[in-house]
Amino acid sequence: MAKIDGGEMVVRALEREGVHEIFTLHGGHLDAIYAACMRHNFRVIDTRHEQAAAHMADGWARTTGRPGVALVTAGPGVTDAVTGVANAFMDSIPMVLIGGRSPLSDDDRLPLQAVDQMGLMRPITKWARSVTHTDRIPEYVAAAFRYAVSGRPGPVFLELPIDVLFARVDEASVAFPENYRPKTAPSPSRAALRQALDWLKEAKRPAILAGGGVWFSQAARELVQFAELTHTPVMANSKARGSIPEDHDLCFGGFGAIHPAIHAKNGGSADLVLLLGTRIGLFTGGRNSVIPADANVVQVDIEPEEIGRNRGIELGVVSDCREFLRDAIEAAKGVKFDEHREWRERLGAIRHAGRSRFQDALKSATGPIHPARMAHEIANLLDPEAIVTADGGETAAWMGGAWTARHPGRFLSHGYLGCLGVGIPFALAAKAAHPDRQVFCIIGDGSVGLNFAEFHTAAKNNLPITVVVNNDKQWGMSKHGQELMWGKGRHMATELGMVHYERAAEGLGAHGELVERVEDIAPAMKRALGCGRVACVNIVTDPDIIEPGTLALYSAASSRPRKEEAAEEKQAEGTTLPYYGKRKLE
After folding, report:
1. How far is residue 464's CA from residue 528's CA, in Å, rounded to a whole number?
2. Which residue of 34, 37, 51, 57 has the fewest C-beta atoms within 10 A of its own C-beta?
3. What are the structural domains, with CATH classification, of the chain?
4. Which one of 21, 55, 77, 113 is the catalytic residue?
5. Among 8, 21, 49, 50, which one carries the catalytic annotation?
6. Do residues 387 and 440 make contact, with C-beta atoms less than 8 angstroms apart?
7. For residue 136, what are the contacts with CB-CB under 8 A and spacing of at least 6?
8. Exactly one of 8, 29, 117, 414 is catalytic; which is it?
9. Is 75 one of the catalytic residues?
10. 529 near 457, Cβ under 8 Å?
11. Using an 8 Å Cβ cutoff, are 577 and 288 in contact?
């Protein structure tokens, strides 16, 4: 009777999920899986750091809507992947991390690379299990995918001890699960749907705030159809960017467009806010909320526990976003909705003002390169259908303001963890998923140091992405924030100096170019985009330009007189927390 080992079971189970590629860094604990990958012609993209492998699995999900799979070895392999898993957990991204483990038979004998991996992973995953019986591996792989994609998505962790993984059992005794996930998604109740549409019909200034739930339910088409049917303005967060094309008449950028302070003198802000698959967090709840306190809020979320987090909700709807939109479209047919012309004109003026803020910088051809000029020059050169990843505190914001996302999964950037170093791994995953599409990464000179060796991953795995390093010779947001709080010239641990990243990238197999003049950006970019391999364009920009988001972030800390700050420092009573203003430390 034929026998198979655990590695064969893992790969067959992945195939049943439609997976044919994994991101990994080799470890001997995993060789049974690698051997099966060779037999089944899997694409194995090997990285230079396990953090990057985890970020790639995360990025794969962000650009495809399907779970990415990372494979890491025991001990330091798993600990290195923690940041990537935590980033996916904070942003509700479906990914599967498979980790090797020391033998079960050596527990409590101090074996090599033994650490409490389950203790590390449980707090940052939706589900984590260690497999103790070889013939049950397919069952646990199936469960991992069920947990990753069901309800609110997220990362999962599956631990495979080496003696369990390498053991061989009779093939006939191994069962591969069938029909282990729901085939339909939850829909809204008729009463909730009726109430939401009644409020929408009565609203004078409605707004839809679309989040990751729209993208991962594959509801982009329905979002556009519903917005057009009801004439409702749409704003999207970073995960949902492009779910409604950003050049559409009803798309008005990010959530901040409805901030009450912006509309205080112009007839008020939104009076009805429809939250579609977005959690109530940093910018939508609490003291920093962009949602007016007096607005009716309808929250649609697949996870009941998310309804009403951080603020009261007038109507909570537990539903998959696509199912809600489909039902709402049917219910709204034949209903006449106001076109909200004045409200839309006001939102359009706000967006135009934001886009026009740096017009002078975009025209100037003298002096140091303004980062806004750099971002706009690049945006104009990229294919409109390109996938863009943006990484770095201020760098991501400059590119985010310059780029127009026309499809979901095409602009990948930071989330709730504020994790730097994601840009290159996200871009590599996007290129692996979409080999025929132009993939571009812009990254700060601080962030690029975190996963720089992945230029080699790109070169050896034939993933020709183009990377621009925004080189302002500093941790820009951090240094600017320090100087806003402490005064010009006062900063600590935030300077980097001039580094020739293009030369280092060349040593790892990339095409490299240095740009120090604005007129050289376009020629260098054209050469990089056309070289047919991974490229690094190192663009030196003006270090004194502060991105508007940094100014807003530190405004509370920087608005107090220096005399007052000096007195507080002398008394040593507290500290300035830039995200939340002034508070006394307990």
Report:
1. 10
2. 34
3. 3-173 (3.40.50.970), 190-352 (3.40.50.1220), 357-550 (3.40.50.970), 554-583 (no CATH)
4. 113
5. 50
6. yes
7. none
8. 29
9. no
10. no
11. no
Q: Is residue 50 flagged as an active site residue?
A: yes
Instruction: State yes or no: is 29 an active-site residue.
Output: yes
Cβ neighbors of 512 (< 8 A, separation 6 or more) are 501, 502, 503, 505, 506, 535, 536, 537, 538
Q: Whole-model pTM? A: 0.93
Burial of 381 (0-12, 13-18, 19+ CB in 10 A): middle
**CB of 101 closer than 8 Å to CB of 29:** yes
Task: Output the tens digit of pLDDT for each of the chain's 586 residues.
Answer: 799 999 999 999 999 999 999 999 999 999 999 999 999 999 999 999 999 999 999 999 999 999 999 999 999 999 999 999 999 999 999 999 999 999 998 888 888 888 999 999 999 999 999 999 999 999 999 999 999 999 999 999 999 999 999 999 999 999 999 999 988 999 999 999 999 999 999 999 999 999 999 999 999 999 999 999 999 999 999 999 999 999 999 999 999 999 998 998 888 999 999 999 999 987 898 777 899 999 999 999 999 999 998 889 999 999 999 999 999 999 999 899 999 999 999 999 999 888 888 887 787 777 899 999 999 999 999 999 999 999 999 999 999 999 999 999 999 999 999 999 999 999 999 999 999 999 999 999 999 999 999 999 999 999 999 999 999 999 999 999 999 999 999 999 999 999 999 999 999 999 999 999 999 999 999 999 999 999 999 999 999 999 998 988 887 544 544 444 444 444 434 434 444 343 332 2
Q: What is the DSSP letter of 495?
A: B
Catalytic, out of 28, 267, 418, 530: 418
